[in-house]
Specification:
The protein has helices at residues 13-38, 43-51, 70-83, 85-100, 108-121, 245-273, 287-315, 322-347, 349-352, 358-366, 375-387, and strands at 125-128, 146-149, 153-163, 171-178, 185-191, 197-200, 214-224, 230-232. It has 389 residues and is an alpha+beta fold. Strands 1, 2, 3, 4, 5, 6, 7 and 8 form an eight-stranded mixed beta sheet that branches. The longest helix is centred in the middle third of the chain and has 29 residues, at 245-273. It starts with 12 loop residues before the first helix and ends with a helix.
């Protein structure tokens, strides 16, 4: 399929990007089952996204990007996720980094290089943070991955797991500690093809299988001194870094809302086509079924309104706390899970058949609970904030 690039369309910018994303989502849906079965990185999807002008959507205009805000970005992610959610998750990581790096502490020339690669080549970037012993850094602790000073710069060694999109990246942001007497911790920019960095294929999960979130092994990977792009004492870091909490809170909800919508769409088609002999008419005509579908619509509608309201507030600079971002992530992902589970209840054996996409949507949507911030940390944080503790 050929998709007209964003820059040549006559619609407004937001309508333009969302329309293109919806087109691509429909294309991606045709091969989503194959990507799921093979747990294969969606190279072709990423190529089409670049050709359509979407890989650098959130990069600032002055850097050559699309300059999209969070509201537009969430709509694009939702539409892509309706077709193939693993592609949408890879895109979330890309969008967050391209939007927030220019506002951070990175050297300007490296920000321009990374974003320039995304604009011109569709190059992807993501952070490798999680480790076998540490787990997710959002829960605290220093990484075992270590950066040692050398005469030329840094030598980095360590083991990262759950490295989303690893095989398809051009750049990796490695979360590591220094070997100094008082260690600093933070981000080191590493080319994905750097000698000593290898990807081990370990990703074999229940859902979101095409994210290719494999292990990354670093053995004395050499980078220049300035590639320690943001290292600080541990006490200087918040849980996500400046500017990222709202994006990490809202965009997963948009993704899994897209999955719930895909499940709803399949369900509606099934209910209209299914005519049991004892009923003599489509299941869609049964009031009890109509009510159950209405409950699914309720959950999806709440998600879309909540995400739309939150993203507009963020884009317009209204106060928005990290606690709110976390709560929105929890509520929207749980609503999406509930919507897909209701669809399963209505379809019986048909819904869990591997020949239908609903069981895949169910496996994918359950992964919403895994992403940080997770339910317990969000609700404990919200409780402490309310109690003034």
């Amino acid at each position: 399929m050929t998709v007209t690039p964003l820059r040549t369309r006559s619609l407004t910018a937001v309508e333009d990007s969302v329309t293109v994303a919806a087109e691509l989502g429909r294309v991606f849906a045709k091969t989503a089952g194959d990507h799921d079965e093979k747990a294969a990185f969606p190279h072709e999807n990423i190529r089409l996204l670049h050709e359509a002008g979407l890989t650098a959507l959130t990069a600032p205009v002055e850097f050559g990007g699309g300059g999209a805000g969070l509201h537009e970005t969430a709509e694009v992610i939702r539409e892509i996720a309706r077709g193939e959610p693993s592609t949408a998750l890879i895109l979330i990581m890309q969008y967050i980094n391209l939007a927030t790096l220019p506002k951070g502490r990175w050297p300007d020339h490296l920000v321009r290089r990374v974003i320039g690669d995304a604009v011109s080549k569709g190059a992807l970037i993501n952070a490798f943070r999680v480790e076998p012993e540490l787990g997710t850094p959002i829960r605290g602790g220093l990484p075992a991955t270590t950066a040692k000073r050398t005469a030329e710069g840094w030598s980095i060694s360590g083991h990262k797991i759950y490295s989303t999109g690893a095989v398809g990246l051009t750049w990796a942001i490695i979360w590591a500690r220094t070997d100094e007497l008082e260690p600093r911790v933070g981000a080191f920019l590493v080319p994905a093809n750097a000698p000593g960095l290898r990807i081990e294929k370990t990703w074999n999960p229940l859902g979101m299988r095409a994210t290719a979130s494999d292990d990354a092994i670093l053995e004395n990977v050499q980078v220049p001194l300035d590639h320690a792009v943001d290292i600080r004492s541990p006490s200087e870091w918040d849980s996500r870094g400046e500017g990222q909490a709202a994006w990490f809170g809202v965009l997963p909800g948009a993704l899994y809302t897209g999955v719930a919508e895909a499940a709803r769409d399949w369900l509606v088609g099934f209910l209209k086509a299914r005519v049991p002999t004892n009923l003599g008419q489509p299941l869609a005509t049964v009031p009890r079924i109509q009510q159950a579908v209405g409950e699914i619509e309720e959950l999806i509608a709440v998600n879309r309104r909540l995400i739309a309201s939150a993203t507009r507030d963020i884009d317009e600079g209204r106060p928005f706390t990290q606690t709110e971002a976390g709560l929105i992530k929890v509520v929207t992902t749980e609503n999406a899970i509930a919507a897909v589970e209701k669809a399963l209840k209505l379809t019986g054996n048909h819904g869990i058949s591997r020949s239908n996409p609903l069981e895949r949507h169910h496996r994918d949507v359950l992964c919403g609970r895994i992403h940080s911030p997770q339910e317990d940390t969000v609700r404990i944080g919200a409780g402490k904030a309310a109690l003034g503790i």
